[in-house]
Write a structure and sequence with these properties.
By secondary structure, the protein is of the alpha/beta class. It is built from five helices and eight strands; from the N terminus they run ββαββαβαβαβαβ. A four-stranded parallel β-sheet has the order 7-6-5-8. Strand 6, helix 4 and strand 7 form a beta-alpha-beta unit.
């Protein structure tokens, strides 16, 4: 349709999530229902993605790694052998790195300003029975108030 400027497609291999990023007007619900006739999952509020032994709920407008070929290896590549008491995951998205950090650190904080992603991170941590403190604010605001340096920071 002519009112769409930019869309994003995200898949877990079975379903496709359709995110409207730029538009002249907000699409009506029927638009997503119409898309779902041809694109399985386009009308679903979220999709589930399994990676690194965890299940991640990814809602519309949330952030998850888009490179499906690297998603399994990215947390190990980013974290390496790091371990300790406290870790902070900046720009945490739905928690791909935050949940992995809980395997190596006692206290993990995920900082995410996108509301849907922060909600998904809380949900994903709860579903995995992992303790992640979710801070819903801009990274620069969080860092400005930080009083003690964590053992590990992932940005």
């Amino acid at each position: 349709p002519g009112f769409l400027r930019t869309v994003e497609l995200f898949t877990n291999g079975d379903k496709v999530q359709l995110n409207v990023l730029e538009t002249d007007r907000k699409p009506a619900r029927w638009f997503f229902d119409w898309c779902a006739e041809m694109i399985p999952g386009a009308a679903d509020p979220h999709l589930d993605y399994r990676a690194g032994g965890f299940d991640f709920r990814v809602s519309h407008d949330s952030f998850f790694q888009v490179n499906r070929l690297l998603v399994e290896r990215l947390p190990q590549a980013a974290i390496g052998d790091a371990q300790g008491t406290s870790a902070v995951d900046l720009y945490a998205g739905v928690g791909l790195f935050s949940l992995e950090l809980t395997r190596r650190f006692q206290d993990v904080t995920g900082v995410e300003s996108i509301v849907s992603a922060a909600r998904d991170l809380e949900y994903n941590a709860g579903r995995a029975a992992r303790g992640v403190r979710v801070v819903k604010e801009r990274v620069e605001d969080y860092l400005a108030k930080l009083e003690e340096a964590p053992d590990f920071v992932l940005a």
